């Protein structure tokens, strides 16, 4: 664990009335990763990125992960960085059936499991929920709720 950065998230185009992407040198703007070790490397524009606590799918333990939301996916990695290998968890946005926010916790409903996230502060969780819903709705044509 580190200093006060565990609740930080980076948003492109942050600000209450933002209409376009921001270009700040300290933000990750492009995520390069592989969906599997044998898969070709993908490059996706990052909409939101930051440290989250994610409950593991099988052991149900909370683990700190670097999350990156793109127009296509939500990926989790063990460490921060714009160039990654295979994510510890990969969520295809078109598979998202719904998003539920309760205080500092976010549940992403998927056909095969519920992805549970915890944030350091409620406003950070709200920002992730809003960005995630926007991205899912763009990806699926408004199917998620």
**Morphology:** globular
Task: Tell me the distance between the termini.
Answer: 34 Å
Give the amount of beta strand, in percent: 35-45%
Which value, in Å, is the CA radius of gyration? 14 Å
Total beta strands? 9
Structural class: mainly beta
Element-level helix/strand string: EEEEEEEEEH
Could you give a quick summary of the protein structure above?
By secondary structure, the protein is mainly beta. It has one helix at 122-140, and strands at residues 9-11, 30-33, 42-55, 62-70, 73-77, 89-92, 98-102, 105-109, 114-118.
Notes on the protein architecture:
The chain has one helix at 122-140; strands spanning 9-11, 30-33, 42-55, 62-70, 73-77, 89-92, 98-102, 105-109, 114-118. It is mostly beta strands and 145 residues long. Strands 1, 2, 3, 4, 5, 6, 7, 8 and 9 form a 9-stranded antiparallel β-sheet that branches. Strand 7 (98-102) and strand 8 (105-109) form a beta hairpin. The longest helix has 19 residues, at 122-140. The chain is globular, with a radius of gyration of 14 Å.
Which key features would you list for this structure?
145 residues, mainly beta, 9-stranded antiparallel sheet, 1 helix, globular, disordered N terminus
List the helices and strands and how they pair.
Blueprint: E1 9-11, E2 30-33, E3 42-55, E4 62-70, E5 73-77, E6 89-92, E7 98-102, E8 105-109, E9 114-118, H1 122-140
Antiparallel strand pairs: 1-3, 2-3, 3-4, 3-9, 4-5, 5-6, 7-8, 8-9
């Amino acid at each position: 664990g580190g200093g006060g950065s565990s609740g930080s998230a980076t948003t492109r185009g942050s600000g209450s009335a933002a209409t376009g992407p921001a270009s700040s040198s300290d933000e990750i703007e492009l995520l390069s990763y592989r969906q599997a070790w044998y898969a070709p490397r993908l490059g996706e524009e990052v909409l939101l990125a930051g440290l989250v606590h994610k409950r593991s799918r099988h052991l149900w333990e909370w683990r700190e992960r670097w999350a990156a939301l793109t127009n296509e996916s939500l990926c989790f990695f063990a460490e921060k960085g714009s160039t990654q290998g295979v994510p510890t968890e990969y969520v295809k946005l078109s598979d998202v059936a719904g998003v539920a926010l309760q205080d500092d916790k976010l549940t992403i409903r998927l056909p095969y499991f519920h992805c549970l996230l915890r944030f350091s502060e409620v406003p950070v969780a709200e920002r992730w929920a809003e960005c995630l819903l926007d991205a899912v709705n763009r990806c699926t044509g408004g199917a998620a709720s």
